[in-house]
Amino acid sequence: SELPEHLQETIQRRDKVLGPGYTLIYKEPVEFVSGHGAHLIDRDGNDYLDAYNNVPCVGHAHPHVAEAVARQMTAVNTNTRYAQEALVDYAERLLATFPEELSKLSIACSGSEANDLAVRVARFHTGGEGIIVTRWAYHGLTREVASFSPTLGAGSPLGPNVRFIDAPDPRLVAPGSTLAEHMRQQVRGAIDDLERHGYRLAALITDCAYSSDGIFTDPVGYMQAVVAEVHTAGGVYIADEVQSGFARLGESMWGFTRHGVVPDIVTMGKPMGNGIPISGVVFRPEVSEEFGRNVRYFNTFGGSSIPVAAGAAVLDVLEKENVQQRVLTSGDALRAGLREITKDSPYVAEVRGAGLFVGVEIVKDRGTLEPDRALTDDVINDMRDRRILISGTGPSANTLKIRPPLAFDSADVTRFLETFAEVAKNRL
Ligand code: PMP
């Protein structure tokens, strides 16, 4: 290996203390010591372009967030059992980004916790237990959430109360049908099968970017029929915005808005604190009220002063730096450039996505769409060797996942496309 000695040593020590469940990204792993914007710097001072990390949404080590957290660290950290004006201010600001029907907030620390709470509330409210997710969904790591996260592997059991539907890939729609009809039928079939096995529906939960399924953001407009079917069966719709939220998809703060539906519950996490653990669940009050009256919800760190300071600082930056507009501009330029570079490639089936969430599907043959995971891995590692970070996703891990910090600006887009063109010339 050409890895620097210190990195080899770190990896050897790492293998000793962390179990085999911890995997490193890239054939030649990387270690970073600092960052700014969409850039990461290694120990030798090399600048990498980060086109993968969504947690530092307003940019690595953003000074406004760092200052807000540092100030709060040196003042006080109290939990939600004390009145905190800053928490109320934050809740009001965050809820103002939602349709008015969604008016109650709970704060937790991770996306998994948020989804765990969302499903508990859904079960309580509906009296049902059935859960519907997409075929290659990931929603988190608690036992409950793992039971409907099929990507976790053969060792992680799925619940008998869980049913799977296609991700909204327009290529799966039968001739003469529509995506709305296809998705509605998928959900109807799942509900019927649950009922045959004695399960009433609690919730349909979908990632609004269908990230682990391979990134399917378009076309929009099929969700109304799907949500209507869920409501007819007495269930609720939970929009998992852990990936798609906070302006990632460009056109709006939340992914569900693009579909013209108002979910019953929305969960969010990852970018919410730009790295400080904070996640949220937003409810229609009629869905969460009885649960709140009957079940105590206290989360030691969730909603305490420091994560809330981080969350508020992220909202400041999203507003002040007009991030959503940058996401639209950078995302459009990125997809247009990728389409241009790959338009004659026999190995690129599709460039898709919205805002700064972009997928490039890599296949053995454009006609058969047979996945080519090995080629996808080669592209990812070639990009890494040229100091640009991306990864792969989808059931066959053959879709490049390009999901940079939202600080990704036009210079970053140019650098990305120039490098991608070099890699594509050799590989695609
Ligand atoms: N939902 C989705 C859509 C996710 O992508 C993830 C994390 N990859 C989670 C939930 C879980 O979030 P966390 O890792 O913060 O628990």
From TrEMBL:
Superkingdom: Bacteria
Keyword Transcription regulation: no
Keyword field contains Transferase: yes
GO molecular function: pyridoxal phosphate binding; transaminase activity
Keyword terms of this UniProt record: Aminotransferase, Pyridoxal phosphate, Transferase
UniProt-listed PANTHER family: ALANINE--GLYOXYLATE AMINOTRANSFERASE 2-LIKE, PTHR45688
Protein family according to the UniProt entry: Belongs to the class-III pyridoxal-phosphate-dependent aminotransferase family.
Name of the protein: Putative aminotransferase
Organism (species): Streptomyces lincolnensis
